[in-house]
Amino acid sequence: MKDIVVLRLSSLGDVAITVPVLLSFHQAFPDCTIRLITRRRFAPIFSNLDFVTIEAIDQEYKPLSFIQWIRFAIQLSKSRPTLVFDLHDVLRTKVIRCFCRLYGSKVYVLDKGRDEKKALIEQKGGPILYLKTTAQRYADVFGKAEFPFQLQSIFLPRLKESSERYSVGIAPFAKHTSKEYGIEKMAQILHLLAKHQEIDIQIYGHGSRELHKAQIMTAGFSNVTILINQLSFEQELAAISSLDLLLAMDSGNGHLAANYGIPVLTLWGTTHPSIGFGPYLQPAEYSFFPDRAIYSDLPVSIFGPCDRTDYERAIDSINPITVYQKILTVLERHN
């Protein structure tokens, strides 16, 4: 049995994408175990993967100093893992893999496709070329080490109980405001959904800013529950796993829900799934885009921030009625 170390430190969405990759790998190579180096707060994402051991690189949610990074890298390298798969390729993981090489580990590194992604957002108009997905890029790293496998439709176990009611999650926030649907338009979707008394709506997010905006959007609705700042991460994952559908921005919540095989409808702003960050195995029809007749240069950003102020609110050109109708269609189809 080979001792395999996988490096993926952040962010939430990128770490979540490793789940279906690791599940597919385990199906192909069930005798292999993995030590995953990531942040402590992400450990609950992998609680159902008994072949994965989490080795946290931070202590009590505090970032490591440079000296602590060196010590961690030396300690890990001294355990002499057979293989090290770097699925992040940043300065911190470069330090770790450098020490691991010194102690005899074979190291394989993610190809992020930086040039391809840069070329995609720099093109002006024309057809959009879909690049390789992040999940496939992760799987390719394993393939380089002669562990080839196909990505599979394997998902985490859900806590969903049979019910005559629908449970719809809405995650209306993102790190960058250019990826957040306007509060008025999201409120319109909520207003339409809340009229269906057989639908229970849960609002996801974090922090006081998002809580305040959620309270504005949901005022007066009896079948809407705001879960912001109410749950531990473990509890939030359990709640997500019980959903019938999640409506999200281009953010980590969509990836978490996709890991359970839940339908994820995504609203895209300055970014685009063609870059490779779409939720795992979600149909193309579950994505909603700004009006390209107006915003012909999309996508204009890889992660969200960009210098195109004229595209900052492109996401608001998405029709809320269209999104609402798709939610109802998907609910009926999957229940």
Report on this structure.
- There is one protein chain.
- The protein is built from 10 helices and 11 strands.
- With 335 residues, the chain is of the alpha/beta class.
- It folds into 2 domains: 3-144, 3-Layer(aba) Sandwich (Rossmann fold), CATH 3.40.50.2000; 166-334, 3-Layer(aba) Sandwich (Rossmann fold), CATH 3.40.50.2000.
- The strands form 2 sheets. The protein has a 6-stranded parallel β-sheet, sandwiched between helices. Strands 3-2-1-4-5 form a 5-stranded parallel β-sheet, sandwiched between helices.
- Strand 9 (245-249), helix 9 (252-258) and strand 10 form a beta-alpha-beta unit.
- The longest helix has 17 residues, at 12-28.
- It is globular and about 60 Å long.
- The N and C termini lie far apart (43 Å).
- The model has no long low-confidence stretch (mean pLDDT 94).
Spatial strand order of the main sheet: 8-7-6-9-10-11
Mean pLDDT comes to 94
Number of helices: 10
Instruction: Pick out the low-confidence regions.
Output: none
Give the biggest sheet: 6 strands, parallel
What percentage of residues falls in helices of 4 or more residues? 25-40%
Query: Could you name the CATH topology of the largest domain?
Result: Rossmann fold
How much of the sequence is in beta strands?
5-15%
Shape: globular
End-to-end Cα distance:
43 Å
Query: Total number of β-strand segments?
Result: 11
CATH first level of the largest domain: Alpha Beta
Total domain count: 2
Main structural class = alpha/beta
